[in-house]
Amino acid sequence: MSKVFRSLILVVVGLMIAAPAMAVVWDETTDGGGDAGDFPTGAYQFAPGPAPVYDEITGTLLDVDVDAYCIEITSATWTAEVVAGTETDTRLWLFDETRLLLMANDDSSQLGGGLQSLVSDTATFTALPAEGGLIDSPTNPTVGIRYVLAINGFGDDALDTAGALISNLNSNFAALVGINPASSGVFGSWEGATQGGGTYDIVLTGAILCPGLVPVTLQSFSID
Ligand SMILES: [Ca+2]
Ligand SMILES: [Ca+2]
């Protein structure tokens, strides 16, 4: 092997090591074909096959809107974070296949995200600096299992089947919040409050957009 060729290989290998992993972005409209469903009164979106693996989601919220996506948790340490967008005040909700809320967050001000949102495993959220890190009875999802991640805007609330607030986000803006003790925790409907709308960008770490077929139990959330 010539010195030049060997040097070239070393440079290429060095660049490969230095290059940061690039996120693969799923767009609600260009990849998903249009408005993502509202869970469970409309379909949610998921990837068509095992590749590529999507770990970032972009879309647009209307004035009264919820966009839902199937995500699979791939690591015990994971986050789903709204990182940018013109929607200035988002909310994130994570439900399991029985429509039970595991956790929700309104404002990720602890990360400098202001009125945008972040959900994560409880250990990661607890370790966040500044005013954040507060948790109120969230439940960690299971690695390898699929869930529904829904995004909407303040102050549209999720209601249970009896019409009660599933989560007390109104008094826990910057906390990771689980089920309101006065609620069954089982999703019934969205309150439907006007939110203002705008674009959003959700970055997934330790989680991916569900690749390919979604379990029948999750499919039942769709009215299609
Ligand atoms: Ca929608
Ligand atoms: Ca918010």
Task: Describe the overall structure.
- This protein is mostly beta strands.
- It has one domain: Jelly Rolls, CATH 2.60.120.
- Helix content is 11%, strand content 29%.
- The protein is built from 3 helices and 14 strands.
- It has helices spanning 3-18, 122-126, 216-219; strands at 25-27, 56-61, 67-73, 79-84, 90-95, 101-105, 118-120, 135-136, 146-153, 158-160, 176-177, 187-190, 198-205, 207-209.
- The protein has a 5-stranded mixed beta sheet. Strands 6-5-9-3-14 form a 5-stranded antiparallel beta sheet, with no helix packed on it. It has a two-stranded parallel ribbon with strand order 8-11.
- Strand 5 and strand 6 form a beta hairpin.
- The longest helix has 16 residues, at 3-18.
- It is globular, with a radius of gyration of 19 Å.
- The termini are far apart.
- The model has no long low-confidence stretch (mean pLDDT 85).
- The protein binds calcium ion (2 copies).
- One calcium ion binds next to strand 5.
- One calcium ion (CA) is lined by residues 35-38, 65-67.
